[in-house]
Design a protein that fits this description.
Layout lengths: L3 E4 L2 E4 L4 E7 L8 E7 L6 E6 L9 E3 L7 E6 L4 E6 L8 E8 L13 E2 L3 E6 L1
Parallel strand pairs: 2-11
Antiparallel strand pairs: 1-3, 3-8, 4-5, 4-9, 5-6, 7-8, 9-10, 9-11
């Protein structure tokens, strides 16, 4: 059973916005950190953003430099969801986006640190 399910991807034009959602199920504790990663064809998977558990500095967030100020990560533990609001999208943002979770107060920008993954959602940004 896959505990994470992403949605919200699509085909948009440069400058548009998308909001990705991640439903977390099957994890018996809400004390987990979340991450969003992306992978473009022929490239390695890279961290986009991550958010600590609420016990981890009150849900402190991190962003890769290229999306800082344009993307916003959030979590709603009551609803078992995480989201990634993406504004001002660029063609370079085209990739499959994945959400991931790990039982830790601190999130990580290393994809190997996450044991739980969603199936991914495709984001394509045309110029």
């Amino acid at each position: 059973q896959v505990p994470l399910v992403e949605s919200g991807g699509g085909l948009v034009q440069a400058g548009d916005s998308l909001r990705l959602s991640c439903i977390v199920s099957g994890l018996l504790s809400d004390d987990y950190a979340m991450g969003w990663f992306r992978q473009a064809p022929g490239k390695e998977r890279e961290s986009v953003s991550c958010i600590n558990s609420l016990d981890g500095d009150g849900g402190r967030t991190y962003y890769r430099n290229s999306v800082d100020g344009h993307f916003k990560i959030a979590r709603d533990n009551a609803a078992n969801t995480a989201s990634l609001q993406m504004n001002g999208l660029k063609p370079d943002d085209t990739a499959t986006y994945y959400c991931a979770a790990r039982f830790s107060t601190d999130c990580s920008r290393d994809f190997a640190a996450y044991p739980y993954w969603g199936q991914g959602t495709q984001v394509t940004v045309s110029s």
